[in-house]
Amino acid sequence: MEGGAALEARWPVLGRHASAAVWLGVWSDLGRAPRTIEAYARGLAEYLQVCERNGVDPVTATRADVAAFVRDLTSRPSRRGGNVVSIDSGVGLANATLQQRLVPVRLFYDFLVEEGARASNPVGRGRYTPGRWGGGGQRGLVPRLSRLPWIPDEAQWLAVLEVFRGERSRNRLMLALAYDAALRREELCALRTDDLDPGRRMLRVRAETTKGRRERVVPYSAATGALLADYLVQRATLSRARGPLFLSESRRNRAEPLTLWTWSKVVHAAALAAEMPRFSTHTTRHLCLTDLARMGWELHAIATFAGHRSTDTTLQYIHLSGRDLADKLSRGMEHIHALRVRQLTEAATGGGAASRS
C-alpha cells in the first residue's frame, strides 16, 4: 500500500492540508484495502484542488462550496457522453462516478465533525424524514440514478463467443466460469486449485475475495467441468504446484498468478473484436443472474447464488422485464442457462491459436 508520502507525491495538494493527511492515515491504520485508500486520496485531492482554485478553506466550506465541486465534475469532458444533469449531453462524469467522488468528501467531513473541527457535514446523505403524506425523503447533494445493467442480446452474446472460440483454453474456461457461477472479476482471478471440487462440480468463493466478505459455494456445469479438465492439462505444463488456478503464459510472467488487469485486457480485446465495446468482465455476471430470473428462480435464491446480502442489490443486477414476461416466453426459455453453457462448450471446441497475454 502506498504510504502518506507516496500519496502526497502523486497528489501534492494532500500535503498542503494537514487534516486531509491525518484522515487518510486513520483509514490506513484501520486496515482499509490499498485500492480503497487510493480512491479516497484521489477523490479528496480533486475536491481540495477545487477549493484552492476557488479560494475556499475546506475545513469551513459550506454546502454551496461542495456544490461548486459537483458543478466542476459535471462540466468536465466525458469519454462516454452522459452526465447527471443531461443524459447524453457529452459532458460530465457518469452518475455512479459522481457518487464515488463524493464518498471521500463526505467521509472527510464526518471525520472533521467527530474531531470537533466543525459542527455539521455539508455533503449530506439524503436521509428519510417524516412528510405530509406519512413519509418523505431529503434529497442528497446529487440525485442517484438507477439504471438496469446492460446485457447483450442473443446475437451479441454469440458474437462474443465466436471471438472466444479462438482463445486459449484458460480464457475459454474463465469466460465459462464467469458466466456459469456469476463470478466477479476479483473472485474469478483469485480462484485457487483447492477451491474446486471436480467430483461434485462445486467451487468455493472465499470470503476474502468477495465484495461482501461472505464465503459461498456454488455449482458449475458438466460442460464447464470439461473445459476445466482441458485447462488443467495445459496448466501442468506451467506448474504442477497447488495455488492460484489461473496462471500467466507470457514469457515475462510465466507461471505467475494471472492479474485482474490481464483478464480485463483479454475481455476488452474480445469485446472490441466482437464490436461490443460495452461488454466487460462484469457483463457475464449480469447476464447469468438475469437468466436465472428468466428461469423462474426466486429472488432470495438468486441473491444467495450471487453472494448479495440484500435482495435490493439483486434487483439492481437483473432485468426484471425478462421475469415479468416469463409466461410469454417459449418453454425452452426454462433451459436458457443450460443453453448458454452448451454454447460455451461449442465455442471451446473450435480451438485456435491465441496471442499470449
From TrEMBL:
Origin organism lineage: Bacteria, Bacillati, Actinomycetota, Actinomycetes, Frankiales
SUPFAM superfamilies the UniProt entry points to: DNA breaking-rejoining enzymes (SSF56349), lambda integrase-like, N-terminal domain (SSF47823)
Molecular function as annotated in GO: DNA binding
GTP-binding is among the record's keywords: no
GO terms classed as biological process: DNA integration; DNA recombination
Source organism of this protein record: Parafrankia colletiae
Record flagged with keyword DNA-binding: yes
Highest taxon in the source lineage: Bacteria
The protein, known as: Integrase
Occurrences of domain Tyr recombinase (ranges): 147-330
Pfam hit, one: Phage_integrase
Residue stretches making up the Core-binding (CB) domain: 18-113
This protein's UniProt keywords: DNA integration, DNA recombination, DNA-binding
